[in-house]
Amino acid sequence: MTSLREGNTPVVKREDYAAPAFLVDSVDLCFDLDPAKTRVLNKMRLRRNPAVAAQPLRLDGEDLNLARVLVNGEGSSFKLEGKQLVLEKLPEGEEPFELEIFTTCAPAKNSKLMGLYVSQGTFFTQCEAEGFRRITYFLDRPDVMASYQVTLRADKAAYPVLLSNGNLVEQGDLDDGRHYARWVDPHKKPCYLFALVAGQLVAREQRIRSRSGGEHLLQVYVRPGDLDKTEHAMNSLMASIAWDEARFGLPLDLERFMIVATSDFNMGAMENKGLNIFNTKYVLANPATATDADYAGIESVVGHEYFHNWTGNRVTCRDWFQLSLKEGLTVFRDQEFSMDMAGSVSARAVKRIEDVRVLRSAQFPEDAGPMAHPVRPDQYAEINNFYTVTIYEKGSEVVRMQQTLVGREGFARGMKLYFERHDGQAVTCDDFAQAIADANPDSELARLLPQFKRWYSQAGTPRLHASGYFDAEARRYTLTLGQSCPATPGQPSKKAFVIPVALGLLDAQGREIEGSARTVVLSETSQTVVFEGIDAAPVPSILRGFSAPVILEHDSSDAELLTLLAHDSDPFNRWEAGQRLALRRALAAVQSADAVHQPLDAAYLDAMRAILRAPELDAAFKELVLTLPGEGYIAEQLDEVDPQRIHAVREAMREQLAHALQEDWIQAFEAHQDNGAFRPDPVSSGRRALAGLALNMLCLAARENGNPVWPGKALQRFKDAGNMTDRVNALSALVGSGSALAQPALERFHALFKGEELVLDKWFALQAGAPDRGGNILPLVKQLMQHPDFHLRNPNRARSLIFSYCNANPGAFHRVDAAGYRFWSERVLEIDAFNPQVAARLARALDRWKKLAEPYRSAAREAIARVAAKADLSNDVREVVTRALA
Ligand code: PHE
Ligand code: ZN
């Protein structure tokens, strides 16, 4: 499907999709596992696709040594064309034939972590998106679904556990200390869902009986020694199974469901059928090593991968342009799952706010930058570059809007129809939306479906313009809603979207005006909403619950925002009002010509104090309200970005909050101490979060007045914390305030957790992400690269140090001397030589360079050009830098 070129990389286009010329009925794989040289025998039954004109069979392969090809048991002629194996002389007609391919590969040398690789002596696979071709020659595309049987053979002492998809049907010993296992997957699947694992592992096991009466064996495999960290993952898995049955009527369709953890993984986790492979980060947790955020991450990722079993595996994608069909939908499902698990209205809102924060701080910039692409992209050079926040998080919002337009029950009906129609098929985003609409023929979604689907085809974040007019005489309030969407690469003009806008009106005292709440469906460029019988100018609460992934432009007064912050019945908009108040002040300070000085006024500080003191509000919610918008989010609001100025302003705001609210921070810290056993539930994690923020603020305040009391308390808490959340919060309070006690605490932390990989990641990340004071962070990062515990080839470790610095610490990364950018370009090139996928993610750190003020802008362009100048870049990095420079 290679047609055009971008730079010098081939581009794949969605419009070029053609059905496969051959179908694979069954695959019988036999592996002789050896780290240096693994032998793979692949016996397939294939047939010509009767719907497609006769043509040669072209199989994908990469980094394979081909030994032999047999067709129906006989030697056959073949050609190697580029990376493809081409067979021209195959049996005519529609009868199935047998194709045997014998290859070898070198898993120990596989540093890309795609295909078959070795991590700490254990074999793992990663096949999505196009890794299966690194295991054997195959029609490596998701619309080719086949039945798999797999035989694994390996040394028994070194690899006692042999796993693959489906059910274990046979196992036994062989000669020479080897043994074997045979697995049969009862479900057809695309090859990207194939998996095997072989090594020294132990499992936590759980037998369950599901609602429908089926019995299942659940297993969580980890390295010996990690078993005490698997309870939360297992609980999350059981909860996911119960939830999918209860909410969507989707049962577990396997007798056995396995999760295996590995320390070397490019992404979070992978939904291979019946054999999910996870980054250890999303499996391992105990109170001493994992934070509340880690616990929440595990719950959502375990849920996410489990939910893929239906949304992704039973119904998969026709081609990779449809990636959001499974990812957007499955993120939506995991978000709903986490919300349902959270329970209370307030805890649900906290989860929603956290999800929106990710969307706005990561996806909005992506949608405004050189890598902007529709939820269903039209082209790519490297599919690995399209596992993006747009496909995932915006994709989820697009599914959420469908639920909003048809209602919760209507959406469940739509899901049911989707599976009735498409179970066992490889389909498109259109098929999904069609099913939801068809199950709800009287809905707004059905009425507006072709227009609604622009969310799949048009990139860019729409602006929602709102303005209100109150006519006292007529007792009428008129709200005018309008929309527009900026150009994105390749899409100069946009058509109107369908935007569900949840809203309501408050009276001047902040009481909800009865009957005013509604969801307006904006489908024109401009529409008015009229409210009759309104006695006084109301305060509109617009885009409640963040009902659409848009930027709301409404110039509400400070007074209105303060009313919303204090009273809105919608917790999301309460939080949002606080963010807007802070943002307004941040932008004013950034844009003023004066030196940065006390950006916050009494009205804002009083409002924050009131929130902190409000007895009816949950701690988790308070922590979110009291956290200022991030530097990246502030930067997005500006046409020209001076990262140092933004950093200085935000730091000044933090210090002001710290000082002005000191008494309340002390109160908050002291009122949120829990001494009982650690539980990661929303209430206690919220209490820890607020206590942690309070401690941070108190140390920050102490920094100026030199008072040693709070740093001393933080150190004490760091030492005797009963869980990792409190410990890391105390440590970051010391590090974040530049306390002299930070260094000894860091040393102690390292000594305490020497053998704990995931905790060491935190240790590196905390230092690389610390506020820069006089340019000290880059030299520290360089020095930490020399630390014996630093391993660039381990993705988690590389992320913890390099990404924490380049992608998450703008105040330290954007240096006037350009040294941060030089460091970045060196690391991109260094990593690209062994792991292009990870390198390409790092390469995105300078996506927004065109917005930078001088001298940053020129220096950033130069750094990107330096990367682009390298002749033998991977497709992955080439695509990112080519787009950035375009
Ligand atoms: N499909 C995985 C998920 O979202 C992500 C993934 C993609 C993992 C590619 C590995 C490689 O659940
Ligand atoms: Zn996924």
Explained architecture:
It is an enzyme of class 3 (hydrolase). Its EC number is 3.4.11.2. Residues 233-444 form the Peptidase M1 membrane alanine aminopeptidase domain. It is a single chain. With 886 residues, the chain is α+β, with helices and mostly antiparallel strands. Among the domains are: 20-280, tricorn interacting facor f3 domain (Immunoglobulin-like), CATH 2.60.40.1730; 315-456, Neutral Protease, domain 2; 463-555, Aminopeptidase N, middle-beta domain (Immunoglobulin-like), CATH 2.60.40. 41% of the residues lie in helices and 21% in strands. Strands 3, 4, 6, 7, 10, 13, 15, 16 and 17 form a nine-stranded mixed sheet that branches. It has a five-stranded mixed sheet with strand order 19-20-21-23-22, covered by helices on one side. A hairpin with a 2-residue loop joins β11 and β12. α3 crosses α5, α5 (389-422) packs across α6 (429-438) and α26 runs parallel beside α28. The protein is globular. The model is unreliable at 1-6 (pLDDT under 50). Zinc ion binds next to α2 and α3.
